[in-house]
Amino acid sequence: MDPLARGIVQAAQQAAAVARRPEPAELALGGAGSAARDYAEASRSPATRRAYRTAWRLFTEWCAGPEAPPGTQPLPASPALVAAYAARLAQLGRRPSTVAQAMAAISVAHQAAGHSSPTRTAGVRAVVAGVRRTHGAAASGKTALETPALREALSAIPEGTARGIRDRAMLLLGFAGGFRRSELASLDVEDLQLVPEGLRIRLRRSKTDQEGRGRLVGIPWGLHGETCPVRAVQAWVESAAISAGPLFRTVDRAGRILPLRCSERAVARAVQRAVRASGGDPTRVGAHSLRSGFVTSAARAGAPTWAIQLQTGHRSLAQLHAYVRPATLFQENAARYVGL
Fold first, then answer.
1. Of 44, 109, 278, 299, which sits most exposed with the smallest number of CB within 10 A?
2. Is 135 labeled as catalytic in the residue annotation?
């Protein structure tokens, strides 16, 4: 550790105090207090809770490791200690988004224990901003799976097998609905209703709807039978003899359909498997490639932004435009109007 960082951590050790203990009034609440904690825990998605737990564990391990002075306590942590940790993550090559997630986890842990968050101080914010400015780079997300590439991937999926029928339905529904992988994996058969226009899907919860208000998503009949998402879903439900419960289920190596819900990771593997079979690079795609591919394809075809947003459920137009803008870079381009 360089002298500057060592000095910061030493100053943090002097400022560290013991963790807050439960007050007698809190202990007296008994079951009600436990229920309150449970509801507070449920205010964040399982994925977010897992990410925060991992980030907090890494911070506490760092505090107990050789880079921090003996006896350094992570809770409550001084701003100087947290700033040193953020700087160390950057030195180790962690992305600015990883540093930001670590800061969020530290903040949540302190607030849950009744301490003020050290991440809110000007010093820590300055370090995090410096990390973004120094190491920030354009996001290198997965490649959007646009309609032509999706067709190629679908054509490579084996026909007549349980996994092939499921994967075809999964890819087509995920694409046509502009679904997140968590949304796709969470669907139950009861969430689907066949109507003359196609499928009406009740999305019970999503990343931007943690309170479970839900929203309706329409999946129209496809123009071509082999790529129709409605027909693909019907084929899967009928072949798997599913009448209730999880829509997309685990298929084992022997081709048996298990009653277990597919994980979010299974959605990504289905996409990668199909792309690999079609001769593409599976490392360039993932579950999000379906959602981004839908947005990009719809924008290229001239679909209104508001219609795309209604289908995908994007709450922020800025996020949506991150996909729409590259697809429509030369459509209605202002440079066309200046007479050059």
1. 44
2. no
Task: Choose the catalytic residue: 166, 180, 231, 249.
Answer: 180
Provide φ and ψ at 220, rounded to 5°. Answer: -75, 160
Tokens representing 314? Answer: 């994007």
Using DSSP's 3-state secondary structure scheme, residue 198 falls into: strand
Q: Of the spans 184-198, 200-214, 324-338, which averages the highest pLDDT?
A: 184-198
Nearest to 188 by CA among 235, 229, 232, 233: 233
Helix 122-135 / helix 96-112 crossing angle, nearest 10 deg = 160
Interval 288-313: pLDDT, tens: 999 999 999 999 888 988 999 999 99
147 in Cβ contact with 293 (< 8 Å): yes
Q: Which residues contact 48 (CB under 8 A, 6 or more apart)?
A: none
Give strand pairing partners of 198: 195, 220
50 is catalytic: no
> What strands, in cross-sheet order, belong to the sheet with 192-195?
192-195, 198-203, 215-220
Question: Active-site residue 224, yes or no?
Answer: no
Say whether 180 is catalytic: yes
Is-contact 87 68, C-beta < 8 A?
no
